[in-house]
Amino acid sequence: MDPRERLLSTLFHREHDKVPLDIFSFNGYSTPTVIGLKGSWVYPEAYACPDDPGRKRISELLADKIAVQYPVSSGINRYMAIPPQRIKEELIEKNDKHILVKQIIDTPKGKLEAVLERRADSIDNIWTLEYPIKELSDLEKLASVPCEIPQNMDVITPETYNEVISDRKSVVYSYISSPFVCVGGAMSYEDFLFACAAEPDLIGECVDICKTRIHAIADELLAERCLDVVWIGGSEWLTPPMSSPDLYRQFVVEPEKEIIEKVHEHGGLVHVHSHGNVASPIIDMVIERGADYFEPVEAPPDGNIVFSDAKEIADHNLVLGGNIELSLMENGTPDEVRAAVERAFEGNKENMVLAISAPTNRPRIHSQFEQNIHMLVSTWERMGDIE
Predict the structure, then answer these.
(1) 255 to 211, 286, 291, 303: CA distances (angstroms)
(2) Residues facing residue 21 across a β-bridge
(3) What is the rounded CA–CA span in Å between residue 380 and residue 324?
(4) CATH number for the domain harbouring residue 214
(5) Is 115 domain-assigned?
(6) Is 197 in contact with 246 (CB distance < 8 Å)?
């Protein structure tokens, strides 16, 4: 099977030959795309080191082994999913260490400002130094913005779709932050958690506004039925103990369930991304809201469940991705990586994707990471066949 067919067959619970392999940093995933940012400043070539020999060697190794996410931008940002045409950007500073940009947000009830940073030592992260929401009353300003389709939303036609997938490894993806993340991303995490506890009705109203905006955008994104997978991320922000199970259900499960149903109605699959503690009842709630693929299922100390136990809970209701930690790939030995991959294959192999938990953000690939990639791939080749 080619990488595209293998991954999609797994997610649709169809017969397939081998466990799919997924390696962040080499599969097309991009944080700026996920959070609705597009523009030259978020992709400074000098920071990314595209000519890095280690990155090239790994890319060649994986070329015929992993599916690649072909990104279709939804334009959905984490400022309550307002249309990005309401946001103007001004360059504050650019040098060999970082890029600073000010965002000025125009709303019917007044302007808001944010400051973002891109650092040279971290190629796939955008740091928010100043959030637009300084006090909860500022939420009213974002809520007052009329619902519009983002000008930076990508549209993929059937002709383009067929051309993209002709390489037999591209899987057409779009990215949607969970509606509550579109609220929480506009303020500091501490302020958001406090607001969820102190002002749950206000946060609930804002989540509903974001959900409405996301549905309007999703209608446009899905109209041509040319998306293979829709990624929904951010639910770890409210995974217990960061919030109560009741708040998780109210702000995560119910809004995401409606979006997932819409994606399924248009023939797409849904990939839910959540770090942290995902043991029951979280995995059960992911199944309840109808997701097809859930990752990265992390063992202690990064998470709270080993992969084989998670497989028993998910059974044949959900494909799980994981559970090789980036920290192991960056800092472990090849023998430790081999042992981790062998543990990941324990239990059911039909409903899993062997995946690294996060992308490496180093501008240049170091030799230890490259050696560990080779060990991961060789162990996958030895053990990944579906019997």
Answers:
(1) 7, 12, 13, 24
(2) 66, 354
(3) 12
(4) 3.20.20.210
(5) no
(6) no
Is 297 within 8 Å of 340 (Cβ atoms)? no
Q: Collect contacts of 215-218 with beta carbons under 8 A, ≥24 apart.
A: 215/258, 215/259, 215/262, 216/147, 216/149, 217/74, 217/75, 217/76, 217/81, 217/149, 217/150, 217/153, 218/74, 218/176, 218/259, 218/262, 218/263
Mean pLDDT computed over 347-370: 91
| pLDDT tens per residue across span 105-147 | 999 999 999 999 988 887 778 899 999 999 999 999 999 999 9
The tally of domains found in the chain comes to: 1
Domain that holds residue 8: 3-84+136-383
Rounded to 5 degrees, what are φ and ψ at 204?
-60, -40
DSSP-based three-state secondary structure for 378: helix
Query: What tokens appear for 35 in the block?
Result: 């959070």
- 131: helix, strand or coil: coil
State the burial class of residue 158 (Cβ atoms within 10 Å of its Cβ: 0-12, 13-18, 19+). exposed
Tokens in use for 139? 């939420």
Q: Is 168 helix (H, G, I), strand (E, B) or coil?
A: coil
pLDDT, residue 50, reads: 62
What pLDDT score was predicted for residue 363? Answer: 75
